[in-house]
Amino acid sequence: MPRKSAPAVSSVNAAAVPPDIHVPADFGARVVDWQRVHGRHDLPWQNTRDPYRIWLSEIMLQQTQVSAVIDYFQRFVAQLPTVQALAAAPADQVMALWAGLGYYSRARNLHRCAMQVVSDHGGRFPTDPAVLATLPGIGRSTAAAIAAFSAGVRSPILDGNVKRVFARFFGIHGHPGERVIESRMWGLAEAALPVPGPRQADDMVAYTQGLMDLGATVCSRGKPACLADALACPLSADCVARRDGLTATLPTPKPRAAVPERSTVMVMVRHGRDVLLQLRPDSGVWGGLWSLPEMPVATVPFDPELAEQEALGYARAFGEPSRADMAGELVHVFTHFRLLIRAIRVDMAALSLREPDSGPARRWLSLDDLDALGTPAPVRKLLEMQARGGLF
DNA sequence: AAACCGGGGGT
DNA sequence: ACCCCAGGTTT
């Protein structure tokens, strides 16, 4: 008896399941069985094979939780019960029905999609996920959901809930938004589908809904139900995150955007115990505080010699400098960037009678009287170090 | 205030 | 083909 050949794996996006990841043969069956007992069965878009209602609910659910969608869904299908009615409706009516749901570009796509289904597909939704995904507002995951619910097509979904379930169950580290992680998950999603059987269509409905329900109600972001009761989840027995205590760390959160690093060169013009400060503009960082003068110096690559020369040049506006030396470096961390401060100390042999009267307000401050002025924390630190006479 | 989210759109 | 955004809500 010739065996049926294995179903062709779609070559596009076919990510092999890494050899170290094992997909239990009964993964799908466990989800299916769990859904039939513990999943949701009475949502207004369930218990139908009407692709119009299924599609509409999937689009609404892309952005809003079930509880908020229900009323909108009911109103929408009451007024526009078919894809033909929607396609023929004026945009104003569609937007009015959507008003309050947010993400209005999706409402516009919804309308366009309806018109396209009517004009290009004879008013009947395709059942092939690849074809569905060509329609406006329908991506790969939504296409699979529509195909599964409306026609029992065996095709994997991968929404945020499923990504969380997979990251935890298979112990996948790395942010799911990353290309490699996401494509690995699509591979797993394919591999984890229920094995084809006599009840494939029904199984796919239960499986697809089951993954959604599991992610939404049991394998939640904050407190997965398995922590209190392992039996709450049909996957808990061999869930990697549960086994290793990683439910709090998986899925890996989006990496904090690398804080940009800026650098600046500050000059400490010293005359005896006095140091020259200047007033910062009211707006911007450290607005209205007295700070050290900063020099517009090329800092990449940083050349200490050059910076010292420039510091000397700067100081000549105030008298006769005797020497300039690197005094140290200091990193100050803001919320939105790191500032590398390089400080150059310039000692004045003599001050000129008249200082420049243009530029920001300036004054001398004694290192023994640092409390007299408000200075930015890192500048204060630099000054305190000077006061103690030390380097850094 | 920061993460999250499926798809679209820009490069 | 890849990266990033828009536009909301949730934590």
UniProtKB/TrEMBL annotation:
It is an enzyme of class 3 (hydrolase). GO terms for molecular function: purine-specific mismatch base pair DNA N-glycosylase activity. InterPro entries: A/G_AdeGlyc_MutY, DNA_glycosylase, HhH-GPD_domain, HhH_base_excis_C, MIG/MutY, MutY_C, NUDIX_hydrolase-like_dom_sf. SMART domains: ENDO3c. Its cofactor is [4Fe-4S] cluster. Keywords: 4Fe-4S, DNA damage, DNA repair, Glycosidase, Hydrolase, Iron, Iron-sulfur, Metal-binding. Binds 1 [4Fe-4S] cluster. Adenine glycosylase active on G-A mispairs. MutY also corrects error-prone DNA synthesis past GO lesions which are due to the oxidatively damaged form of guanine: 7,8-dihydro-8-oxoguanine (8-oxo-dGTP). Belongs to the Nth/MutY family. This is Adenine DNA glycosylase. It comes from Cupriavidus laharis. The lineage of its organism: Bacteria, Pseudomonadati, Pseudomonadota, Betaproteobacteria, Burkholderiales.
